[in-house]
Amino acid sequence: MGALGPVSIILLLFFCASVVQSRTIVKHLPGFNGPLPFYLETGYVMVDEINGGELFYYFIESEGKPSEDPLLIWLTGGQRCSVVSGLFFEIGPLKIVKAPYNGSIPELAYHPYAWTKNASIIFLDSPLGAGFSYSSNPKGYEVGDTIASLQIHKFLKKWFVDHPNYISHAFYVGGDSYAGKIVPFTAQLVAEGIEAGQQPLLNLKGYLVGNPSTGEKIDGNARIPYAYGVGIISKQLFELTQKSCVGEDYSNPINVGCAEVLDAVEQLMSEVGMQHILEPNCILSSPNPKDIIQKRRFLKDDYILQLSQPEEPPFYCRSYIHYQSYFWANDNATQTALGIKKWRS
Q: Helix, strand or coil for residue 103?
């Protein structure tokens, strides 16, 4: 073959260019005392060119043997909940220090038992509209589970092109709660891409889900035997549900007798905290995801993706640290440190 001509050189340079839209190496975070004791990279990846939709990620390199340890992408639940939930309250190396909010930025502390001790993790704000992921055109937010999974797969292919040293690492797709619907399909898309020989060829080893949502009918119907099993409802009431709701969907009863029994069950269940039945029944510090989605079905061109300040729960509630996270994430210093694009007014 002859030497590369000018056109070939231009094409080669084009394909070698970074596909991550913007990338920030974060060495300090507001609220944390001193430099971060781990490598943190944040960035945006375009997944919807038509509407200008970009997914935002936090990448934390393994604190163990980063050249050998597996790589995990973590998706949070709740439908459009920020992955800050996974980063601060689940598997990440930082925790919010619980303290009464006084107007200053909440304090962060190092979490020594994080999964990042033995794995590199991509924490992804997905779908568009979750956390700092955004769409220039409001139509970009009109995505369901299938589109969201396809966009995550697109994100992964672009991210690995930009981080080729991780392509050979054992790779896992993980998530919790509502992500129980997204994780398996995303893993399937990755597996099908591998079988088809799509580049980059990832080293997928499996997927994992925690407290996964599997479907409204299955999850909703499971609440009744669960409530009986942990003593929220009596044996007599449980047996009455079995007698009155034969063949019924607990989440959508059509029998009047069944509906009345379920009302009694719901009344008792409302008196305990369903996130943790041994703790006080506290308000959630996040808005109802269903309400957010409903609003986004009728977006106007000037719609601003900004939620109002959550209601403050009592300090003794576990949800208080979620309340604190709102102020940390919405602080200008935090967003500057993370390299957040000014897509909101």
A: coil
pLDDT: which is higher, 59 or 283: 59
Average pLDDT, the chain: 86
Per residue in 291-327, pLDDT (tens digit) is 433 333 323 333 334 456 888 999 999 889 999 999 9
Residues 6+ positions from 345 with CB-CB distance below 8 Å: 304
Q: Which two tokens stand for residue 286?
A: 């996040």
Q: Are residues 53 and 153 in the same domain?
A: yes
CATH number of the domain residue 311 falls in: 3.40.50.1820
Residues 34 and 117 placed together within one structural domain of the fold: yes
Q: How far apart are CA 18 and CA 307, in angstroms?
A: 33
The answer as to whether 11 is a domain residue is: no
Residue 41 lies in a domain: yes
Closest C-alpha among 31, 177, 26, 35 to residue 95? 31
What are the phi and psi torsion angles at 110 (to 5°)?
Answer: -75, 135
> By C-alpha distance, which of 309, 302, 300, 311 is closest to 329?
309
CA 234 to chain centre: 36
Same domain, 222 and 200: no
Residues 204, 233 share a domain: no
Identify which has the larger pLDDT, 45 or 12. Answer: 45
d(CA 107, CA 118): 25
Answer with the residue of higher pLDDT: 185 or 4: 185
Share of the chain above pLDDT 70, in %: 86
Are 232 and 101 part of one and the same domain? no
Q: Give the domain range for residue 142.
A: 19-215+305-338
Domain presence at residue 298: no
Number of domains, the chain: 2
The verdict on 149 and 228 lying in the same domain is no
Average pLDDT over residues 158-186: 96
> Is the domain of 152 the same as that of 186?
yes
Sole residue written with tokens 């996974």: 86
Q: What does the pLDDT look like over 248-261, one tens digit per residue?
A: 778 778 889 999 99
Tokens standing for residue 287: 């808005």
DSSP tag of 327 = H
| Torsion sign over Cα 235, 236, 239, 244 | negative
Cα–Cα distance between 303 and 138 in angstroms, integer?
7
